[in-house]
Amino acid sequence: MSKVAAERRQGDAPLLSENKLKLMVFGMSAQGGCTMTSAEGTLKAEWDESKTLARLIEEAGIEGIVPYVRWKGLQGATNPGQRSFETTTWAAGLAAETAHTQIFTTVLMPSVHPVMFAKQLATIDHISNGRAAANLVAGWLGTEFRLFGTKQMLSHDDRYAYADEWLTIARRLWTENEPFTYEGTYFQVYDADSDPKPVQKPFPILMSAGSSPAGRAFAAKHCDVNFAVFADLEMAKAMIKDVKDYARREFGREVMVFGMGSIVCRDTEAEAKKYVDYYVNQKGDWQAATNMANELGINSESLPKEAWDGMISAIIAGFSAWPLHGTPEQVVEGMKELSDVGFDGITLNWPNYAEGLQQFKAEILPLAVQAGLRAG
Q1: Omega before 179 within 30 of 0, i.e. cis
Q2: 207: which strand partners?
């Protein structure tokens, strides 16, 4: 728990639970969720669907719900993310429909002014009685920047400098009682104040994904959670140590690190592998996944074919999440491996969220309790 988090009612926020491996569900605000496939049963991005999934999440005792923000789809045959809910109003709706789960919005910071967002998140915190949270995104998809009128994105490090000013203003609005003036490189605000303050003190839980030096510094300075993608367990172990050591050394803070897992659970390992082959290799949207890789600055000429195909398959399967594929026992073994290398928690996604959540509660959760990952 970070020093900031420690001031937040000593663990009352759902994400500050005592579970050894905390869990959140990722990506249920957009069509397809975290998969890029035309396979049956994927998310439709409908409001009744979101409410149903939120109820299943609460019944399973999962700590949080995290949407991903998307303003432009990735084209291809299925155009992943094109149909997606605006995440802050979506979070406000789910806040009113739930009672126990941490409800995140994911915000593309250049798309909304910090004064506006500070008020929005404080409002959700009141709707939810102290369960609001924010996943902060500096931006990476050029088509989205152009949609909002920015022809050329800032450089990577400058995007985080922008994000630092943005969040500095929001934090002051959440915590200061007197109007203030802020004059920075990217923002100037005058006579700024905001009321009501958030229920959580000093402000709601914050998360960001940052593995670069600039992203890591932003998360270490401001956030309770660093959300990380990783290629292998040894890399993950070293990265977690680096993130936590950096936050302690530079800012005197403790930061949780979350990974991402994609679950395909069947009665046998062979059945799980067969379904992965079906929704990835037979039904996968390879063009959309290629477009995503290209937007991240990676192309097929930069990697050997085998490595390229593996990367694209992982994007299709679940946004490059760690594969938790196999029997219920194998899924829990994979979860334990992630816990053992140092992850405080993981976000989860499935090709079929409703089916996956019901199976998780009935078959996987009891084994996770036996493994000491979850409280009984």
Answers
A1: no
A2: 135, 225
Residue 368 sits at the vertex; the CA angle it makes with 366 and 374, to the nearest 5 degrees, is 100
Give a yes or no: residue 71 inside a domain: yes
Element (H, E) at 296: none
Domain boundaries, position 302: 3-370
297-329: b (≥16 Cβ within 10 Å) or e: eeeeeeeeeeebeebbbbbbbbbbbbbbbbbbe
Among candidates 145, 127, 42, which has minimal Cα distance to 90? 127
Most confident segment among 61-65, 73-77, 308-312: 61-65
Structural domain count of the chain? 1
Specify if 375 maps to a domain.
no
Q: What is the pLDDT of residue 296?
A: 78
Token pair of 152 as six digits: 């050329």
Structure tokens at 149: 């009128």
- Whether residue 333 contacts residue 368, with contact meaning beta carbons closer than 8 Å, is answered with no
Q: Which two tokens stand for residue 258?
A: 């979350």
Please state the separation of Cα 195 from the chain's center in Å.
27
Q: Which two tokens stand for residue 47?
A: 């409001």
Q: Is residue 130 helix, strand or coil?
A: coil
Find how far residue 238's CA is from the centre of its chain: 21
Q: Pick from 198, 2, 215: which is nearest to 117 by CA?
A: 198
Cis peptide before 204 (omega within 30 of 0): no
Contact present, 348 and 57 (Cβ < 8 Å): no
pLDDT in tens, 71-104: 888 999 999 999 999 999 999 999 999 999 999 9
Residue 151's pLDDT is 67
- How far is the C-alpha of 181 from the C-alpha of 311, rounded, in Å? 46
DSSP 221-281: HH-SEEE---SSHHHHHHHHHHHHHHHHHHHS---EEEEEEEEEE-SSHHHHHHHHIIIII
Amino acid 168: pLDDT: 98
Q: Tokens 């996943």, residue?
A: 135
1 — pLDDT class (breaks 50, 70, 90): very low
Tell me the CATH number at 326.
Answer: 3.20.20.30
Q: Which residue, among 64, 180, 160, has the nearest Cα to 115 in the 3D structure? A: 180
